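We modelled the chain as a single entity of 109 amino acids. Its sequence is:
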Amino acid sequence: MINFLQSNHHNSQSFCEMITDDFWKQMIENIGKYNDDEIYKILEKNSIIYNIEITHMIKYFIDFFIKKKTESLNEELLTLFTYIIHNISAKKEYIVYFFLREFRKVNKL
């Protein structure tokens, strides 16, 4: 394992991208504009760019929303976030589609 990391250390450095708050704000807009399949494709593309699993992107989105969008938080949204975090090991497609449907409903997007 160490040999692999030593041999491929340049891979982790050259494609290092940071997810910014602007990215998450754009995702919120996209959730309101596009259907679930299009959002899933956007998440897939960005999971490759940022080298993060889609389910982890959902967790990071939740983290962003709780920290930066406190004025938009309500009991329904916190319940949704809790449910997602506690069931994050479910099949990624289920998590993403459930999250998108419920997030739109709660935020009236």
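As a brief sanity check on the tokenised model: DSSP finds seven helices and no strands in the chain. The CA atoms of residues 12 and 51 lie 9 Å apart.
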